C-alpha cells in the first residue's frame, strides 16, 4: 500500500542533514553542496512505517 502523502526521507551523505521530499534536492540546504542523498525512510512498523529510520540514520 502506498500513501502519496508520505514522501520519503533523505539524508545528506555529506553533513547528515535529513529532509522529507518526493525527490532529493540537487543541492543540500544545509551544507550547500551537491551531495548524494540516501533514502532513510523507515518502512517497518518498528519506527511507525514512516519518518527517518533511526537505524539508517545511526549509520556508523
Ligand atoms: Zn549536506
Distance between the termini: 31 Å
How many DSSP-defined strands? 3
Rough outline: globular
Radius of gyration: 12 Å
Order of H and E elements? EEEH
- Strand arrangement within the widest β-sheet reads 2-1-3
Strand content: 15-25%
Mean of pLDDT = 87
Helix proportion of residues, in percent? Answer: under 10%
Bound molecules: zinc ion
Q: In terms of structural class, how would the helical and strand content be classed?
A: mainly beta
Low-confidence stretches: none
Instruction: Specify the biggest β-sheet.
Output: 3 strands, antiparallel
How many domain units?
Answer: 1
Number of helices: 1
What would you note in describing this structure?
- The chain has 60 residues and is mainly β.
- The chain has one domain.
- Helix content is 8%, strand content 17%.
- It has 1 helix and 3 strands.
- It has one helix at 54-58; strands at residues 9-12, 18-20, 37-39.
- It has a 3-stranded antiparallel β-sheet with strand order 2-1-3, with no helix packed on it.
- Strand 1 and strand 2 form a beta hairpin.
- The longest helix is centred in the C-terminal third of the chain and has 5 residues, at 54-58.
- The chain is globular.
- The model has no long low-confidence stretch (mean pLDDT 87).
- The site of zinc ion has 9 residues, from loops.
- Zinc ion binds at residues 12, 14-15, 17, 28, 30-31, 33, 35.
Q: Key terms for this structure?
A:
single chain, 60 residues, mainly beta, 3-stranded antiparallel beta sheet, 3 strands, binds zinc ion
Secondary structure: elements and pairs:
Layout: E1 9-12, E2 18-20, E3 37-39, H1 54-58
Antiparallel strand pairs: 1-2, 1-3
The protein binds zinc ion.
Amino acid at each position: 500500500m502506498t500513501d502519496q502523502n508520505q514522501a520519503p526521507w533523505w539524508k545528506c551523505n555529506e553533513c547528515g542533514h535529513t529532509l522529507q521530499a518526493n525527490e532529493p534536492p540537487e543541492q543540500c540546504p544545509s551544507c550547500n553542496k551537491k551531495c548524494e542523498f540516501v533514502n532513510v525512510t523507515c518502512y517497518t512498523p518498528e519506527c511507525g512505517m514512516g519518518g527517518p529510520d533511526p537505524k539508517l540514520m545511526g549509520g556508523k
